[in-house]
Amino acid sequence: MSKLSSRKRKRMKINDDCSIETANHSTVGRLVNVSELGLCVQIQRAIQLHEGTNVKIFTERAGSLFGKVVWQHKNFVGIELELSSNTYAKTLSLIREPAKA
């Protein structure tokens, strides 16, 4: 089974500026895609983010989102979001409302 076919939710492409913080690091980047359960961030400065690391992602449109790193490949990071009705509403707003140019 391919990685894409095993996803729990369909990801939607997005292109929003964001910041990402851990207990030890912070950097800026762009949200590449998002679903109700997770997102992919392309970070500007490649820092090592280990699987299971808690992260805070901030975007202007959604505010703060919290999750854990599930994978990293170079400067792309996959994050599983904390499940809550608040997180769900924030990610849906990113999917439904296109970014302003």
Fold and architecture overview:
By secondary structure, the protein is mostly beta strands. The chain has one domain: Thrombin, subunit H (Beta Barrel), CATH 2.40.10. The protein has one helix and six strands, in the order ββββββα. It has one helix spanning 85-96, and strands spanning 12-21, 26-34, 38-43, 54-59, 63-73, 76-81. The chain has a six-stranded antiparallel beta barrel with strand order 1-2-3-6-5-4. Strand 4 and strand 5 form a beta hairpin. The protein is globular and about 30 Å long. 25% of the residues are buried. The model is unreliable at 1-5 (pLDDT under 50).
How does the SSE layout of this entry go?
Blueprint: E1 12-21, E2 26-34, E3 38-43, E4 54-59, E5 63-73, E6 76-81, H1 85-96
Antiparallel strand pairs: 1-2, 1-4, 2-3, 3-6, 4-5, 5-6
CATH class call:
Mainly Beta
Catalogue the unreliable spans: 1-5
Structural class: mainly beta
N- to C-terminal distance? 37 Å
CATH architectural type: Beta Barrel
Number of domains: 1
In short:
This protein is mostly beta strands and 101 residues long. Helices cover 12% and strands 48% of the residues. The chain has a single domain (16-96), classed as Beta Barrel (Thrombin, subunit H).
